[in-house]
Amino acid sequence: MTNVAIPPRMNMSVVAPRIFRAVLALDAAAREGLDQVLVELVQIRASQINRCAYCIDYHTGDARRAGESEARIHQLSAWQESSLYTAKERAALALTEAVTLLPQGVEDEVYDEAARHFDDKELARLIALIFTVNAWNRMNVTTRKTPGTE
Known about the structure:
single chain; mainly alpha; about 65% helix; globular; AhpD-like; AhpD family alkylhydroperoxidase; CMD-like; AhpD_core
């Protein structure tokens, strides 16, 4: 099997550094107070949906460094059928899918279940985390950022 080189279109951190730094700052603010493993699960799941190879690679590595197991990483794309995730994680993943697939809407049941597991500040951060990873995904897919590059 040979790898196919997909050339990047641009480097946003070089071409638009203020925009890049603004997204970094939003990302940092969204993570505050949230469990690091949960953050990575959310970011991997959104990246899977958005087919962002760079972010899947990046956040899978971060999840491993945060102590996440290989089994939970591998089963994340089928989390609904897996018994490896807590009720809180399941609520966060359901909200991640609803916000990422926004044209389908965010059902009251999905939002309410997340609100049962997260206080208002945590829920606000979780929502911000989800829309931030979606921004990263869109930036990286559009510019063809390659896994393993900085």
